[in-house]
Predict the structure.
Amino acid sequence: MRKSLLETILNPEQLSVRFQPIFRIGDGDNHLHSVEALIRGPRGTHFESALMLFDYVHRKKEEKAVDHSCLAAICAEATKLPRHLRINVNVHAATLEQHPGFLESFRRRLHKHSLSLDRFTIEIVEYAPNCDIPELLATLAALRSEGVRIALDDVGLGQSNYRMMLDCHPEYFKLDSYFVRGLRNDSKRRAVVESVVTFGRALHTAIVAEGMESMEDIALVAEMGVEFAQCNLLCPALPLPDLMASGIIGEPALAFGAAESLAAAAR
Amino acid sequence: MKEKILIVDDDEQLIGAYREYLCNLGYDVDCAMETEEAQTLLTHFEYSLVITDLRLSRLNFGGLELVKFIRDAGLPIRVVVLTAYGWPELKAEAANQGIDAFHRKPMRLSDLARTISVLTGGPHEEIPA
């Protein structure tokens, strides 16, 4: 009998992991900063698309169980990454509310794979209005005490609002692609980016801009004070063997050049 | 362009048989075994017609929930209910939700094809079941 889709997803072996590089762009010394681990659903199904996969998971209200399955799949792959490389993982706010359960299970999982907590950045996704803020903040504090960094995903959209930006006080704001696409010719979008950069400076939070579609826009966000860029133009999310073969992961100074070559080849 | 059909049933063998038959008739067929899976597909793809069982698990009548989802979202989709339960009150409730056809299982594949053809206005030639 066919397993339900949820049962399938809860088996980490049915999930695949891709890694998308995040580059430092803001200080004139462009280089690879970290990679974000991104999950794809069961191969050959519509749910291979992350958008559909997590839409389904949200409808099932199974974010916590699926987050643990995703982390299991990511940790198994992350063991093959160079040890100097930082890894970003997405975790739903609802999962982070489990204090101290989340940290303990994350620590056990990393230990099993000989990975250290301080290599990880947790990207908080899909904060819900009924979120238990004290529990969430307790988890974030405990994670930070172990060297984990915190990022707030999709800043400017949905529930990644000013309250979350203040309460979580993350090390990174990830600015959604909606606000940076076509930035050069859009004064309203530039105003949004400027406001997030200003707010980030006040909180000592760095900005990661996502989804730029031209090198001009990457240069512009850098001029505006954005320190990091993550976009398909520089490098799409790749399976680990392809990422390793791309030359992007290696000598930090060479990394950005390799990414530009890859982007040029893609064009 | 091929008509796109979504079949929703928790009986894997049944949806496999429907899929094969309807694909051979030229339809583009997706399948789902539970309400949330179907809702996700309906949110991301455009279907002409949905064939759904009413009972999608031992616990609930998720098919009715799915019909309500389709109608509440204003999706222009024809809905065929195919169920082993012929209770008048269930049929009345399904009708109230705005279904286009209600059939009892088992249903001959050729009859199902005829229903689909009528509802989608497409002249699909029937093949022997």
The CA atoms of residues 69 and 130 of chain A lie 24 Å apart. The longest helix of chain A spans residues 187-203.
